[in-house]
Specification:
Strand 10 (258-261), helix 11 (267-279) and strand 11 form a beta-alpha-beta unit. The chain has a 7-stranded parallel sheet with strand order 3-4-2-5-6-1-7. By secondary structure, the protein is an alpha/beta fold. The chain has helices at residues 2-13, 24-32, 49-57, 69-81, 95-107, 123-132, 159-165, 180-190, 218-227, 241-253, 267-279, 312-319, 337-353, 355-369, 374-381, 393-410, 417-426, 434-438, 448-456, 459-479, 483-486, 489-497, 503-510, 516-530, and strands at 37-40, 62-65, 86-89, 112-115, 136-139, 170-175, 196-199, 207-213, 233-238, 258-261, 284-288, 300-305, 329-335. The chain has 24 helices and 13 strands. It has 3 domains: 2-199, P-loop containing nucleotide triphosphate hydrolases (Rossmann fold, 3-Layer(aba) Sandwich), CATH 3.40.50.300; 207-391, P-loop containing nucleotide triphosphate hydrolases (Rossmann fold), CATH 3.40.50.300; 428-530, HRDC domain (DNA polymerase, domain 1), CATH 1.10.150.
Length: 533
C-alpha cells in the first residue's frame, strides 16, 4: 500500500490529478504488485497511468508497444515536460533521438520506452532491448492483437514471442474497445500466464451520440455541421487520405479553421499539425480512419464520421476522441440508408459464413436504423448491457420526431429545413414535441403543419404536395385506411421535394413494412408527374 500512496502523490504532484478515477486504484495496485493485467476501460479513464506510474516508482525499464506514432510522440512529450525519463522508437525517429534513447537504455536512466510493433522484427533493436532487461511490457491499443478486433495488426502477434525472449516480464495490456470475442482472443494470444482482468463500464456520460442520413451534397452537409459548432475543436474521420485533404480544404474555403492529418503527409508537417491541433481550441482536424490521430486532446468537443465505420468497435473507439475532459461533447455519424438496409438484409447470409461478421453487420445496421438508444445498441455489441442513455438523438426526440429528423437529414430542402438546422446547432434540444409532428397525418386540410410546409416549398413542389395529399386521401378512403398507413406525411413532403424515379426507388427510400406502398405507390408517382405541369 506504500507504493500506492507514492503513486497517488506522484499523480497529484507531477500529473496534476487530485485522485484516482473509479477502478484505477485497484488496477494500479495489481500492477505495482507485479501481476499481469488486462485492462478494458473507455477513453479518458486513465489506462496509461496504470503502467506509467509503476514505471516511475519502481526501478527498471518499462517497454510500451503502441501502434500510433502520433500517440507515442504525444505521450513521450508529456512525460518529458514533467521531467520524467521517456523516449520513443519508430520508423520516423530521427538519428539524434535514436542515439539519446540508446544512451538512456545503456545508462539505465530511461524508465519508459515507447516502440512501434514493427520494431520487434529489427535485430539491432531486439538485441538492445534484451540487454536492457525490461521489467515490464505494456501493450497499448491491445485490440490490435486480435484478429477479431477492429484494427488488427499482424505485427502485434509477435509480442508474445518477444516477451518470452525477454525472460517473461510483467505484461500489462490496455484498450478502450474490445468485444467479448476480442477480449478472449487477446488473452489467449498475448499472455503466457492468465492475467488479472479489469473490465470497467464503457459508458461515456459526456458524449451525446447521433446519426444523420448522408445527403447528396454531403460536403455541404458537413460544412453546415461544423459551422454550427464553430469555436470548438473537433475531429472528422474519413476513409481516404484524399478525402481528408478535400474535407479540410472545403472547410477552410467556408471560412472555418481546419487541417488534415494522415500517413501520407511528411513527418515534420504531421508533427506541426498535431501540435497546432493540441494547442488550439477551435480547430477541426480531418483524419483518416485507418491511421487515426492517437492524440490525447481532452477538449475536443465533437467527432464526426464523414465516412461510416465498418464495425461497431471502430465507431466506439473513435467517438471517444470527444469529451475526454468530461464536459458535454457530440459524436455524429453520417450514413447511407441504402447501404445500411443492404447490410441488414445481408447479415443472415454473413452470419452463416462468419458468425463474427454477421454480429457486426447486425450491430452496425441496428445502430443506424433502429430508433432505440444508440449508446445502448453500441454497448450491447461490445458485451455490456446498459439502460438508455437519455442523451442520444433517439432518446431525446422520441420515435415520431426521429423519423422526421432522418427525413430532415436526407431532404435537400422543404418543411424540415428548420428541424435540420436545429439538429445541427444543438442535437434537437429545441425541436417541438413529437405530437405536432405526428399530427401531420391528421386529415384536417387546414393543418398548421401543412401550411408551414406550403410556405417552405417552391411553387412546383407545393403543387406536387397538394396532388400527393389528394391522391393519398383517395387511396386511403378506397382501402378504408387512415392516410398515414399508406405513407407518412413527412415522407409525402420528401416526395414532393425529390420525386422518386420508380416504384422500386420509392419503396426502397421510404420503407414499406405493410406492403401498402408497393400496392398504391405508382399512383403517388403519377401524381408527382402531374404536378410538374
Amino acid at each position: 500500500m506504500a507504493d500506492l500512496e507514492e503513486a497517488r502523490k506522484l499523480l497529484r504532484d507531477r500529473f496534476g490529478f487530485a485522485d484516482f478515477l473509479p477502478g484505477q486504484a485497484a488496477a494500479l495496485q495489481a500492477a505495482l504488485d507485479g501481476e499481469d493485467l488486462f485492462v478494458l476501460a473507455p477513453t479518458g479513464a486513465g489506462k496509461s497511468l496504470i503502467y506509467q506510474l509503476p514505471a516511475l516508482i519502481r526501478p527498471g525499464l518499462t517497454l510500451v508497444v503502441s501502434p500510433l506514432v502520433a500517440l507515442m510522440r504525444d505521450q513521450t512529450r508529456r512525460l518529458e515536460a514533467l521531467g520524467l525519463p521517456a523516449a520513443a522508437l519508430h520508423g520516423e525517429t530521427a538519428p539524434g533521438a535514436w542515439r539519446r534513447a540508446r544512451n538512456g537504455l545503456e545508462s539505465g536512466r530511461l524508465r519508459l520506452l515507447y516502440l512501434a510493433p514493427e520494431r520487434l522484427a529489427d535485430p539491432e533493436t531486439l538485441a538492445l532491448l534484451r540487454e536492457a532487461n525490461p521489467r515490464a511490457l505494456a501493450v497499448d491499443e491491445a485490440h490490435c492483437v486480435s484478429q477479431w478486433g477492429h484494427d488488427f495488426r499482424p505485427d502485434y502477434r509477435r509480442i508474445a514471442d518477444f516477451a518470452a525472449s525477454l525472460s517473461a516480464p510483467q505484461v500489462i495490456a490496455a484498450t478502450a474497445t474490445a468485444s467479448p470475442r476480442t477480449r478472449a482472443d487477446i488473452v489467449e494470444n498475448l499472455f503466457a500466464r492468465p492475467p488479472r482482468q479489469f473490465v470497467g463500464s464503457l459508458r461515456r456520460p459526456a458524449i451525446a451520440l447521433s446519426a444523420l442520413p448522408r445527403q447528396r451534397d454531403s460536403m455541404r452537409q458537413l460544412i453546415g455541421l461544423v459551422a454550427a459548432r464553430r469555436g470548438g475543436a473537433g475531429v472528422i474521420y474519413c476513409r481516404a487520405r484524399e478525402t481528408a485533404d478535400r474535407v479540410a480544404a472545403a472547410l477552410k474555403g467556408a471560412g472555418l479553421p481546419a487541417s488534415s492529418y494522415h500517413a501520407g503527409l511528411p513527418t515534420a508537417l504531421r508533427a506541426a499539425r498535431q501540435d497546432e491541433f493540441l494547442a488550439r481550441s477551435d480547430l477541426t482536424m480531418a483524419a483518416t480512419i485507418a491511421f487515426g490521430l492517437g492524440v490525447d486532446k481532452p477538449d475536443a468537443r465533437f467527432v464526426i464520421h464523414y465516412d461510416t465505420p465498418d464495425d461497431p468497435e471502430t465507431l466506439y473507439q473513435e467517438t471517444g476522441r470527444a469529451g475526454r475532459d468530461g464536459r458535454p461533447a457530440e459524436a455524429i455519424a453520417l450514413y447511407a440508408p441504402e447501404r445500411m438496409a443492404q447490410l441488414r438484409a445481408a447479415r443472415f447470409d454473413l452470419a452463416r459464413l462468419d458468425a463474427a461478421a454477421g454480429e457486426k453487420a447486425r450491430a452496425l445496421s441496428d445502430y443506424f436504423l433502429k430508433p432505440a438508444c444508440r449508446e445502448q445498441t453500441l454497448l450491447r455489441a461490445l458485451g455490456e448491457q446498459a439502460p438508455p442513455c437519455g442523451r442520444c438523438d433517439n432518446c431525446r426526440v422520441g420515435r415520431p420526431a426521429h423519423r422526421a429528423l432522418r427525413l430532415a437529414g436526407a431532404a435537400p430542402r422543404g418543411v424540415f429545413d428548420l428541424a435540420r438546422d436545429v439538429l445541427r446547432s444543438g442535437l434537437a434540444l429545441l425541436l417541438p414535441p413529437p405530437a405536432p409532428i405526428a399530427d401531420l397525418d391528421a386529415p384536417a386540410a387546414s393543418s398548421d403543419a401543412w401550411t408551414l410546409a406550403a410556405k417552405k416549398l417552391s411553387v412546383v413542389e407545393a403543387r406536387r404536395l397538394e396532388l400527393l395529399r389528394a391522391t393519398r386521401l383517395a387511396l386511403a378512403r378506397k382501402a378504408g385506411l387512415a392516410p398515414g398507413r399508406i405513407i407518412g406525411a413527412e415522407a409525402l413532403v420528401a416526395i414532393a421535394v425529390s420525386p422518386p424515379r420508380s416504384l422500386a426507388e420509392l419503396v426502397e427510400t421510404h420503407g414499406d413494412p405493410s406492403g401498402l406502398l408497393a400496392r398504391h405507390g405508382q399512383s403517388l408517382i403519377d401524381a408527382t408527374i402531374a404536378g410538374n405541369g
